[in-house]
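Service request form, structural biology core

Requester: graduate student, group of Dr. S.
Request type: structure prediction, single chain
Budget code: on file
Notes: please return the result as structure tokens.

Sequence provided:
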Amino acid sequence: MNNDQTLLATFLPQSSSQIMMRNITLAVLGSLALWLSAKVQIPFYPVPLTLQTMVVLGLGAAMGWRLASATVTLYIAQGAAGLPVFAGTPEKGIGLAYIAGPTGGYLIGFVFAAMLVGYLVRFGASKNVFKTFAIMLLGTAVIYLPGVTWLTTFIGIEKAVQFGLTPFLYGDVLKAALAAGIFPAIWMLLGKTKA
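Core staff response, request fulfilled:
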């Protein structure tokens, strides 16, 4: 019996013969959503504030840990191949040079955050406002851990916290609150339409 309570597993069931094509399609669409979210920016220095974190965490909550982390990995692979998918590309470089730059740690954090959020929602946590909020904040912390750590190697710990963490905290709490409203509402809406 499948106890996976992600939106994807619940509302897009599939047979084993359909699963690979569905997952490939969703991973490509998810990587495109990440690409677009990277280009919606509010200027900050040195790291722009984008909608990427919300999309990363949303992918985890909707897809589950395996597909969400594969989707984020595909997105990073697209950038590594030279596509201008990241925030600030192509102006700040492309490909592996960009990934090795100051924001590379955040990209790695995206994968782990998508995995963590995707794993935790499997047990129905995204149906509850408070649990969703907590999971989104935890996912955000998982993005910051490698992000700020890697940024520290470029500008030191004080400046990394000053420029790579502190300016984004209020925005990230707001994004977590939005997700805490959106995901339980989707579950409620879909639950009513499915009955």
